[in-house]
Amino acid sequence: MSKSDVVVIGGGISGLFAACLAAKKKKSVTLLSYGQGALAVAGGIIDIFGYDQDGNMVKDPLEHIKTLALPHPYAKIGVDHVKEAVDAFLNLCKESNYPYLGNIRENQLVPTAIGGFKPSCLTPMSIDTNLFKKCTKLVVVDFDLLKDFYAQLIAEGFSKTCPNKQISTITVKLPYETGPHFRDVSALDVARLLEDDVSILNVIEQLKSKASADTLFIFPPVIGETPNNRVLNKLKQALCGNVIEVSAIPPSVTGYRTDAMLVKIAKTLGVEIIEKANVFSCVKEGTHCKKVLTQNYSHVYEYEADEFILATGGIFGGGTVAQMSRMFEPIFNIEIDVPKDNQQWSYQYLFTGKPQPFATYGINTDESLRPIDSNNQLLYDNVRVVGRALGGYDFCYEKSGNGVAICSAYHAIAQI
Amino acid sequence: MAKLKSDNPDQCISCNICLTACPVARATRKYRGPKLTGPALTRLRMLIEDQDPMLQYCSNCKNCDRVCPSGTPISTLNMKARSAYYKKNPHTLAEKILSNNELMGKTITSIPFASTIANLGMKITKAAGAFEIVGMSSKAPFPTYAKKSFSAMFKSISQPKCDKKVLFFPGCYVNYNEPQVGVDLVHVFNHNNIEVLIDDNFVCCGSPMISAGYIDKVQHNADINSKILASYAKQGIDIITTCTTCALILKQEYDELFELEAVKEYNVHMYDAIEYLLNMYERGELKTDFKTLNKKEIYHTPCHLKVQGYGKPTLKLLNKIPGVEVVDADAGCCGLSGIYGYKTNTAEVAAIVGSKLQKTIKESDAHEGVCECNICRLQMQNNTGKKAYHPLHTIRQAYGI
Ligand SMILES: Cc1cc2nc3c(=O)[nH]c(=O)nc-3n(C[C@H](O)[C@H](O)[C@H](O)COP(=O)(O)OP(=O)(O)OC[C@H]3O[C@@H](n4cnc5c(N)ncnc54)[C@H](O)[C@@H]3O)c2cc1C
Which of A122, B95, B241, B366 could form a disulfide with A102 if both were Cys (CB 3.0 to 4.6 A apart)? Predict the structure, then answer.
């Protein structure tokens, strides 16, 4: 049996960030994760708070967070820790040579895959939204054979959202073999190909005649797979600095890079990462968790620690389990307060812009993020819940997913 | 007992995270990728017959299973589909030859001088281009045969009588190609007052046959092995493996493929040799009379170990030996993945996949490579100028026995 200061359960953004922060505090950290987190699906931009409850875009996320009441996780975390968390995240990225842009006092307008914009707070360098303000001409870059990226649709979208800009598309050809014996080209394939200098030159060659100081090239998420901005910098050098990525369907290359960065940092800081570790139960004494247990097709493994961070996400990935009339967290066996009638979990009409009740379901905690029951009784004194596993917020409606993840991770680790 | 996800393609939520981790999809677009070839097409195969040639490109390395947040047995869905494909289509000659590893090994190591002749013969046939004719790659790093099988060597070791006994499942590679690994195991365990048992009735775990699409044949092996393993487990005897692939097949795939009840009786008693020793260390039971060795080793984690969910015991244990520094290569899959790296049609993919590991080892300032998996070690030695050993080799060296 191994013993560490901190055991983190879950390897999504909240778990990885918590592990890195704990390791920075010189704690010995073991991270147990059964499968990868949502980053590589969802993307690497960090929403802090995008829309208020009436659906209005929030200008200053920090100001808005001050107005939130319990049980919203931000209200538990507090403004100071939200600020410090964002700084800690920005510093970590910078130290890792993959800096993020943006600040907590301002939302940016991030371009979307249909030629619109959504508010978000922190973005990788490949999504520098200032370039949109600066450039009057937009060129949407398509890649021949690239699937599920619709340059024309994006261009049409931007012609509505940016009526004063001149918009065009261009298709880059890369030497891909074609035919029934080859898989469709994905953004990840192109991103990997562009890691090779000859391919970058090839792309530049096909675009440079259009480059100018006020022309912005809008790429699919293909600007390299490694979190180091090497490919981005080469493209920018050749294209007057005006290059930006938009998102596409999963796997998300931008999220994949951020995930790779966090894993790399965690390893460098000495976090022991145990992959495919299926945590299924815990051993406790009173309200004190002694150890958690994992098992695959094997004997049981025990991981002892002083502190536990529960970062297992929501329904995606199995962090919480929904059944008829019941929702619960399976490792610590925490009941989640939900209506007995499953019909009340959701609002009947999808895509009407209304929030869905089930989206806020998650583990209830005290202000230090330790789980409590429906009578506010503390369930565990050394377990802290972070990320999507928390209840009381609707990341999808308010656009706060990765923000709550990093801020709750920070708040949890600040206390241990 | 953990609730494990069953053999159900609908477990997959199409998040496509597996595509990011698949070394084959990274190396070639001839493979559709785990999600599509595995769960997505499995759903389709339930309705219509599917002849997808891309299926041959899955190497069963299980990196897809490792990163899947939903616990979908993606690679096993692929292997089942491949086996179904071969019910209607002929096997290649290479598949027939390579999946017969056990018979070849047994024959060659039981006849005096046969291994010398076979190893020489292999060189000559390779040089003469005969490998390519049957569909095997002449560039791949083939293993050589041992003069004497492990079970023959085992009989000549006189072990001390100990109260504590473990059963060792050597697997074909240790038995016929590198018996030294098994010999090291016996000495290291004996040094810690543990007697090692072997059972002559064990047969090949079946891994090469699974990859070659002969799942039906594997069922026979699974029946034999699982009965033997369960009978020892019932007596409270722990089971030790050194080959991470054998371990995975015995612990997990017999259950996934054949739903054998016996598996649950013995898989809770199964340990990788180094995992077992590390557990002893953590309980304060391992002898630590290590000599100072003064060497740097580069460690490669086999994919089939990563997916078993117990971390990297070798990295932890070897670093406890004075004078030994072990660094993690962290360079992905070796590419060979059993017979995959030896068949001409997939060998070139394997070579691309393995090139990062080879480069990392070659450029490292470590003196030698270290790795649990036998086949990975062949790739680690392939054009890298370095030797690669099973971690037991270093531990035995440190004990000076
Ligand atoms: C399609 C989509 C798009 C999104 N877009 C954005 C966006 O643009 N901006 C933004 O800020 N947010 C976005 N989000 C939200 C954001 O991705 C999530 O809120 C955030 O990733 C949650 O991180 P987490 O670490 O809490 O959970 P997860 O990333 O879900 O990680 C949980 C981890 O725990 C593991 N786990 C679960 N159970 C166990 C167990 N028993 N044992 C061991 N491990 C276990 C899982 O396998 C997983 O690795 C999006 C989400 C989705 C689904």
Answer: A122
Distances (CA, A) of B218 to A7, B72, B205, B364: 39, 22, 8, 39
In the predicted structure, residue B57 carries a pLDDT above the cut 70:
yes
Which band of pLDDT confidence, cut at 50, 70 and 90, is reported for residue A248? confident
Interchain CB distance below 8 Å, B29 and A189 = yes
φ and ψ at residue B195, rounded to 5 degrees: -90, 140
**A172 and A66 in a common domain:** no
Cis peptide upstream of residue A251 (ω within 30 degrees of 0):
yes
Interface test with B, best of A177, A276, A297, A320 (most B CBs within 10 A): A297
Residue A121 has pLDDT above 80, yes or no: yes
- How confident is the model at residue B127, as a pLDDT? 66
Q: What is the pLDDT of residue B171?
A: 97
Segments in A196-318 forming alpha helices (H): 197-207, 230-238, 253-268
Question: What is the domain extent for residue A331?
Answer: 2-94+277-414
Token pair, residue A162, equals 């940016």
All residues at 6 or more sequence positions from B180 whose CB lies less than 8 Å from its CB, including other chains: B393
Task: Report chain A residues whose CB lies below 8 A from the CB of B268.
Answer: 298-300
Give me the helix-helix angle, B344-363 and B374-381, nearest 10°.
Answer: 70
Whether A278 contacts B2, CB under 8 Å = yes
Residues B361 and B251 in one domain: no
- Inter-residue contact A298 to B310 (CB < 8 Å): yes
Phi first, then psi: what are they for B218, rounded to 5°? -65, -30
Give the number of domains in chain A: 2
CB-CB neighbors (< 8 A) of B65 in chain A: 276
Q: What is the ipTM of this complex?
A: 0.94
Residue B60 sits in a domain whose CATH number is: 1.10.1060.10
Residue A201 dihedral angles phi and psi, to the nearest 5°: -60, -40
Question: Helix or strand or coil: residue B374?
Answer: helix
Q: Are B239 and B233 in contact (CB under 8 A)?
A: yes
Q: Quick check: A146 and A220 in contact, CB under 8 A?
A: yes
DSSP category for residue B4: P
CA-closest candidate to residue B335, choices B317, B353, B347: B353
- Return the beta strands (E) in A209-333 as ranges: 215-219, 243-245, 272-275, 279-285, 288-294, 301-310, 321-323, 326-329
Task: Give the residue whose CA is nearest to atom 30 of ligand 1.
Answer: A313
- Give CA–CA dist A109/A132, Å, rounded: 9
Among residues A361, A382, A391, A408, the alpha carbon closest in space to that of A282 is found at A382
Judge whether residue A145 has pLDDT over 60: yes
- Tell me if the bond preceding A71 is cis, omega within 30° of 0: yes
Q: Residue B370 maps to which CATH number?
A: 3.40.50
pLDDT(B2) > 60 = no
Let me know: does A304 contact A2? Beta carbons within 8 Å: yes
Among B30, B69, B270, whose Cβ lies nearest the Cβ of A36? B69
Task: Return the CA Rg of chain B.
Answer: 21
* pLDDT at res. A351: 63
Task: Say what the pLDDT of residue B137 is.
Answer: 82
Please give, rounded to a whole number of angstroms, the shortest distance from the CA of B179 to a CA of chain A. Answer: 26
Interface test with B, best of A4, A30, A145, A183 (most B CBs within 10 A): A183
Rounded CA gap, B395 and B393, in Å?
A: 6
pLDDT reported for residue B274: 98
Q: Provide, as residue numbers in chain A, all residues whose Cβ is less than 8 Å from the Cβ of B2.
A: 278, 280, 294-296
Domain extent, residue B70, equals 10-86
Q: Token pair for residue B234?
A: 């019932």
Top mutation candidate among A109, A263, A402 for ligand 1, by most atoms within 8 Å of CB:
A402
> Which ligand 1 atom sits nearest the alpha carbon of residue A36?
49
